[in-house]
Amino acid sequence: MREHIKGYSEKEAVERLLNWVQTAFVYEYDDKVWGHDRAFFAEESLYYPYCDCEDRSILLSRIVRDLLGLKVVLVYYPGHLATAIHFANDVKGDYLVLNGVRYTVCDPTYIGATIGMTMPGMDNNKATVILLE
């Protein structure tokens, strides 16, 4: 994957990774597939034929941290999980602030959404931010 983002700016690289996670996997609810809620490790999303919002968010957070070294948080809305990324330069769009650090929303389940777009119906002011270290 490093070769596919080589030479791109931080924002452009995240855009490519975000689009890949949004479109490369078949979405299905855990209850239908497993009979209960189940969050995958990042590698499991690459193995199993279906994944949902938390699986995609965990995968995106992992590849952005591993490939680009950026800080990433998970954003929990009741019934949905997304990611938000700290960019070296401000990026336009919806964001959250945690400990004085700005994280721009990057939702891997909101198909076609670009960096900074929050899924309709989700409220960033009421979201719970999960710090990843």
Lay out the secondary structure.
Blueprint: H1 2-5, H2 10-23, E1 26-27, H3 30-33, H4 42-47, E2 50-51, H5 53-68, E3 72-77, E4 80-85, E5 95-98, E6 101-106, E7 128-131
Parallel strand pairs: 1-2
Antiparallel strand pairs: 3-4, 3-7, 4-6, 5-6
Throw out a few tags for this protein.
133 residues, alpha+beta, 5-stranded antiparallel beta sheet, two-stranded parallel sheet, 33% helix, globular
Can you walk me through this structure?
The structure is a single chain. With 133 residues, the chain is α+β, with helices and mostly antiparallel strands. It contains five helices and seven strands, in the order ααβααβαβββββ. Helix 2 (10-23) packs antiparallel against helix 5 (53-68). The relative contact order is 0.18. The mean pLDDT is 90.
